[in-house]
């Protein structure tokens, strides 16, 4: 695959560039190569816990070239979807961390933290501080008819200490409890690819998607019509979708 012919890159973070708070082999060098080649790119992640500003600052501290405008998260895509498909200023009950709450709030949503006021939608992302009470409140809203929206279906998240439950685990809890299925915004939804490409003013066929998870990264890219590179440094999963290129780490792209 001739990377210089790509007009843009969408690069996954957790498991592709990073393992927890540590860069993976060749990751920083590869992104620096993209910058030198003057090819547009986005850090493209299902992780909804941080704002683009926080993600960019974290990446810069590690040595990556990064600006908040180059970060496209499932929280951003979720806020765009809510404005288009629910209403411009929805009432939301959010199961998620500060990044998700801040982004949907900045986009015009009002966040409700109780069951005393009916909400338009329950939005679920990764929440490492989730409580049984919070899940119970979400369940109540869903049983009362609120729309069920998930930022992403990732069942596990790679960290430097191993894997932890992802947003998909929380979605599965509520899906089982309410017998309702969520509308999931992030990977493997191909709309997440198209939304990121639109930010780059490109179409999927001109973009290369780089990720570690065949079930999410590669499936979303393939469904959208983008080319794919599978980096085998993150989630241990069977190859559900054939990649255009398979590599052990991003270091292989520098040879």
UniProtKB/TrEMBL annotation:
Pfam families: Hydrolase_6 (PF13344), Hydrolase_like (PF13242). The keyword Transmembrane does not apply. It comes from the Bacteria. Substrate binds at residue 187. Signal peptide: none annotated. The active site is at residues 12, 14. GO terms for molecular function: metal ion binding; phosphatase activity. GO terms for cellular component: cytoplasm. This is Acid sugar phosphatase. It comes from Sulfoacidibacillus thermotolerans (Acidibacillus sulfuroxidans).
């Amino acid at each position: 695959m001739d990377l210089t012919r790509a007009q843009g890159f969408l690069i996954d973070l957790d498991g592709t560039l990073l393992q927890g708070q540590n860069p993976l082999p060749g990751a920083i060098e590869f992104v620096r190569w993209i910058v030198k080649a003057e090819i547009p790119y986005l850090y493209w992640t299902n992780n909804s816990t941080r704002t683009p500003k926080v993600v960019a600052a974290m990446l810069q501290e590690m040595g990556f070239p990064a600006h908040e405008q180059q970060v496209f998260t499932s929280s951003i895509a979720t806020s765009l979807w809510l404005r288009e498909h629910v209403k411009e200023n929805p009432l939301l009950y959010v199961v998620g961390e500060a990044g998700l709450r801040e982004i949907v709030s900045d986009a015009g949503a009002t966040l409700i933290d109780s069951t005393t006021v009916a909400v338009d939608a329950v939005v679920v992302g990764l929440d490492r501080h989730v409580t049984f009470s919070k899940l119970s409140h979400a369940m109540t809203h869903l049983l009362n008819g609120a729309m069920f929206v998930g930022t992403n279906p990732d069942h596990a998240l790679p960290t430097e200490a191993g894997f932890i439950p992802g947003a998909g685990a929380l979605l599965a809890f509520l899906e089982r409890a309410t017998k309702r299925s969520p509308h999931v915004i992030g990977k493997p939804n191909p709309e997440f690819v198209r939304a990121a490409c639109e930010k780059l003013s490109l179409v999927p066929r001109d973009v290369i998607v780089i990720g570690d998870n065949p079930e999410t990264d590669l499936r979303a890219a393939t469904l959208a019509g983008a080319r794919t590179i599978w980096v085998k440094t993150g989630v241990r999963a069977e190859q559900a979708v054939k990649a255009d290129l398979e590599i052990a780490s991003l270091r292989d792209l520098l040879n």
